[in-house]
Design goal:
Layout lengths: L6 E4 L5 H11 L5 E5 H16 L5 E7 L3 H13 L4 E5 L4 H9 L7 E5 L7 H6 L6 H14 L4 E3 L5 H8 L4 E4 L18 H7 L3 E4 L1 H4 L4 H12 L5
Helix pairs in contact: 1-2, 3-4, 6-7
Length: 233
């Protein structure tokens, strides 16, 4: 696979003009754009359509987590945006995961289940009553997602190798928390360089600030693509 296609740039802004300008600047250097809650809450489906017109796939990262019927409806609505992928929380349970899959239209969008957010560690899990280690919790939720029809999962770089061994080659692993050695870590706690993540078995990388806050975002994206090109087969 072209290494550029492995990179989904996170456009984490409420400003549609800013997002469109960034997306247009990055066309040809990344494989698609991740649009999350900040962007969607401010701009809605019309904002998604505006970014989609630039001509690259959209990863709609809204992390649905609700009763099964509501999540099924949310995924049906997401399908209307023509996004390539969207997200649910695996911790919503088996019925919710299965309902999300029923909300898709001819397999679109692909449904990825979020395991444990990259901003959390074992201490944070303990605070909310989870006694499992991060690795144990991620693996448990990933197996639940696979069993009930999800197309893949979202997990931190630290769990990629374990998940690839346990879940096989065909299950999509989307990885946030990617920080090149030359970029700031910011608020992510479980991070890895782009090349190491791809070597470990990641399919796609979500990368935001290392690209969007760079002095030259297209150059930063190209630098990342170059770092992973020998492993992005």
């Amino acid at each position: 696979m072209d290494p550029h296609k492995r990179i989904f740039c996170a456009l984490d802004t409420a400003d549609l003009t800013e997002a469109r300008e960034m997306a247009m600047a990055l066309k040809g250097t990344v494989g698609g754009f991740k649009l999350g809650k900040e962007f969607f809450t401010a701009n809605g489906p019309q904002g998604i359509a505006a970014i989609e017109k630039i001509g690259l796939p959209i990863f709609l990262d809204l992390k649905f987590h609700d009763i099964p019927n509501t999540v099924a409806g949310a995924v049906r609505s997401a399908a209307l945006t023509n996004c390539l992928m969207t997200t649910i929380h695996a911790s919503g349970g088996s019925e919710m995961i299965a309902a999300a899959i029923k909300g898709t239209s001819f397999g679109k969008p692909k449904v990825l289940a979020v395991t444990v957010l990259t901003s959390l560690n074992s201490n944070n899990l303990a605070e909310i009553g989870v006694s499992n280690s991060v690795n144990e919790q991620v693996l448990m939720l990933s197996k639940l997602a696979l069993k009930h029809g999800a197309d893949g999962i979202v997990a931190s770089p630290n769990e990629i190798r374990m998940l690839r061994q346990e879940l096989g080659r065909d299950f999509i692993i989307m990885v946030p928390g990617i920080r090149p050695d030359w970029a700031k870590q910011n608020d992510q706690k479980r991070t890895m360089s782009p090349a190491d993540a791809i070597k470990a078995g990641a399919d796609y990388l979500v990368i935001g600030r290392p690209i969007t806050t760079a002095s030259n975002p297209p150059e930063a994206a190209e630098r990342i693509a170059h770092e992973i090109e020998h492993y992005a087969i």
